[in-house]
Amino acid sequence: xxxxxxxxxxxxxxxxxxxxxxxxxxxxxxxxxxxxxxxxxxxxxxxxxxxxxxxxxxxxxxxxxxxxxxxxxxxxxxxxxxxxxxxxxxxxxxxxxxxxxxxxxxxxxxxxxxxxxxxxxxxxxxxxxxxxxxxxxxxxxxxxxxxxxxxxxxxxxxxxxxxxxxxxxxxxxxxxxxxxxxxxxxxxxxxxxxxxxxxxxxxxxxxxxxxxxxxxxxxxxxxxxxxxxxxxxxxxxxxxxxxxxxxxxxxxxxxxxxxxxxxxx
Length: 265
Description:
Helix content: 40-55%
CATH class of the largest domain: Alpha Beta
CATH superfamily of the largest domain: Tandem AAA-ATPase domain
Number of helices: 10
Structural class: alpha/beta
Radius of gyration: 21 Å
């Protein structure tokens, strides 16, 4: 039995009588042409830890890197759980959060730990300000996709009120995307058009994508959901914002969770 890494996949070759223990790892696809089992690269840890398997030094280095990343992630989870249970204000490097309430401090701190996060906060609890502070924290070109009714009345106004970030509204002038701003504001239909017109260049310029009223993605098969999910592995920082993430059933969480969690397919 042998495992190697290729194209971000962990590929296992085994004999026929070994296939059942390989299948027990889960989350695989069997390639009939090569008679191999293909797993997401993150499964390399489970494969090496649980199977008597041969692997090269190059694969061993990837395995060690993945273990270190998993350890870091577990530490982040433990810190996040601590933050959620301590009702106090936190000092956050690089940004001024003195005007924020305690629950906003907690939210900003949680978002700063991870590259992507879902803020399912009730209406009136200040999730827009949380997002603005994270824009300041990451200091990267950001695009906010929001309902047309809130782009100027909420987002443009709040950005000008709470920060020095330079923002632009794109829905009436898409050409402004060619110019440099800190924040690009666009509605859902405009985002679909921009994604199509820029032919993949959007992810080269934008490094943070914020989806406001993310319950719009409740159907992962809709055109807007597919367009947004196209960038889940292309844009580093991703945020979902909504007060009603699943108004009808739990399945409506999937598109939103897939956007912030690259492991969901």
